[in-house]
Amino acid sequence: MNARLQTWLGDQIQTLREQNLYKVPKILESPAAGRVRMNGKEVVNLSSNNYLGLANHPKVRQAALESIEKWGVGAGAVRWIGGTMTVHQELEERLARFKHVEAVLVFTSGFTANSGCIPAVLTDRDVVISDELNHASIIDGVRLSPASYKKSEGWVYRHKDMEHLEEILRNAQSFEKRMIITDGVFSMDGDIAPLPDIVALAERYDAFVMVDDAHASGVLGKNGAGSTSHFDLYGRVDIQLGTLSKALGVVGGYIAGSAVLKDWLINRGRPYLFSTAHPPMVAAALIAALDVMETDPEPMRRLWDNTRWWKKALADSGFDTMGSETPITPVYFGDEKAAQDAERMLFDEGVYALSIVYPTVARGKARIRTMPSAAHSEEDLAFALEALKRVRDRLAVGV
Fold it and tell me: Which residues does residue 127 pair with via DSSP β-bridges, in sequence order?
């Protein structure tokens, strides 16, 4: 390989090490659950998006196995080349009913759903108005579009600041289309977007709204239908992104909206056009996961019972959870090295909870991000709490 490239890469990695930003993923050696085996050690897992415990649900597993017998293990091609299997079609129809929209188009991931949808619906005559804490996949999708979007040009609003959003909307009236885009639940802080206010402003200033519901799916709304359901905004949010990789426990993402939006994305959504479809067993497993979400309230009840217990226990122990309103529960450390040290020390104590540092969050805002789920017992969470308190006391910094 090219020596210059190798040297450059090595230098960059060394810089990350020196800045306490270098990460090495751990090896998961068991199914996704509240307790897992990781790097040869049993730990309480507080870093999984498996909110409802569906990744290892028996009905979901059985649906995948039966699908393999019927369909095999691969779709064989991109859907517009090889054809859409009926199981993929059924999944999209089920998701459309679940979201109370005309149509849904499934992508291979939430990230590709954003990078497929955003550039497809915008031109160089349009503007994107974005919350400053939006997810990286939103930011990258916006960058792929020809629309105006830069913070330096005044198109990024302060986090959840509706006065600032309105000011920007007033300044954006010369553009042909104005897209407001926001996370439904913000992935690093766990707070909820003020969607009713955003929608009201969009209607006042003739803008349209896209909400990324990756962390609201399965968590907020009726049966976990997301933030539009949570706020009863059916028919008033133009584009919804959902993920199939978190609460539904499998993999993928989707865009929910009008039938004409789906038709356009089939023809111009590049990740859809150039990516092989999900294996049919993925679609079948997701249909089964939807069945569980719509008919069994117990997983969602356990998720929120555990979330409330965890947040109260952290607050009672003096931890700063940074205004979180959802299962995403950051524990503030501030200093990048302290957060990375805390992650390592927690693992030694039998708890896996990821440190989140720059550039994922701003410098000086490092935290341990914890994720209680339906798969945890109260004993799991109590064990993790005591470990976190011991680590806090040993580090004596930032908490």
Answer: 148, 178
